[in-house]
Amino acid sequence: MKLLALDTSSEGCSAALSVDGVVSERFELAPRGHTRLLMPMVRSLLGEHRLSPADLDVLAFAAGPGSFTGLRIATGVIQGLAFGLELPVVPVSSLAVVAAEVMDRHSLDEGEGVAVAFDARMSEVYWGCFVSRSGQPHSLDDQRVCAPDRVSLPSAPAAPARWWGAGSGWQLQEQMPAAVRACMTAVDSTVTPRARYVAGLAEVGYHRGDSVPAAQAQPLYLRDTVTWKKLPGR
To answer: Residue 91 in 3-state DSSP?
Structure first.
């Protein structure tokens, strides 16, 4: 199977190509470079494997939560490719992508947990808790957006005995409840979503039947409304 995965949900911009389970990736931290970088990354990956877009079988993208602008970029590219090539799309949670990276990087044992927090701006975080099962992140609760002091971990018996914290939202950990911080084995606020982990989760999701047609490949914002502060005089 040939699967192309994209991520522009954070400051990182990345594309990954999985060919029969072997993943190649292009990644760059470029907060304002997603539009400029994404398609050249895709062309580079396809060229490296001497493939054309028509050779692809499945598409995937980090659907959010994350940067509103970034999510729209990946969604637009994925929908354009999916409509043109008539390919299925697997949307993947950006929070789960970071959890997968932590599980891989630290070789987490079965049953260990990852609490992922993204900075959602406006004094809020995107929050999701995952447990490692067969090397894959499984969500323990509904992903949500809330103030840092409102985050929480799942109650027993679902709660893992060992937790790791990851994602940009952990820069606000001093505002999080002390009970949550005390459960963390380690915290890394520098971890960002990467397309190689989007690809890995998407392959599992595709075989599980999680793919959707192009029209249903939509971003996950979590926040329904955005409060805009008008400039003086407007």
So the answer is: strand
Go through the domains of the chain in sequence order and give each one's CATH number.
2-94+193-216 (3.30.420.40), 95-188 (3.30.420.40)
CB atoms within 10 A of CB 223: 16
Distance (Å, rounded) from C-alpha 212 to C-alpha 17? 19
Residue 88 and residue 78: Cα distance in Å, rounded? 10
Asked whether the predicted pLDDT for residue 223 surpasses 80, the reply is no
CA 228 – CA 234 distance, rounded (Å): 12
Q: Are 151 and 117 in contact (CB under 8 A)?
A: yes
Q: What is the pLDDT of residues 92-129, one digit of tens each?
A: 999 999 999 999 999 999 999 999 999 999 999 999 99
